[in-house]
Amino acid sequence: MSHGGGLDWPALMRAGLQGLKLAPDQFWALSPAELQLMLGAGSGRAPLLRDGLEALMNAYPDAGKDTTDE
Fold first, then answer.
1. pLDDT tens track, the chain, 70 positions
2. Among the residues of the chain, which ranges form H helices?
3. Alpha carbons 35 and 41: distance in angstroms, whole number
4. Are 35 and 16 in contact (CB under 8 A)?
5. 3-state class of 1 per DSSP?
6. Cβ atoms of residues 12 and 20 within 8 Å
């Protein structure tokens, strides 16, 4: 939620005060991480990172399969 390199405060305040129905003191007491969580950001699945890919590859190896791409 950035606006021109900084935070888009009008949009954040609208989301917090109107969307979440927070009182101003409640809004300003939140950390950015708390506000992000309340707005639903990060509620999806985390991306598959290198460690996760390696774990899957070790658990389900392509053994016995032809490795050429023809």
1. 555 668 888 999 999 999 999 999 999 999 988 988 898 876 667 777 899 899 989 999 987 666 565 5
2. 9-13, 24-29, 32-38, 50-59
3. 9
4. yes
5. coil
6. no
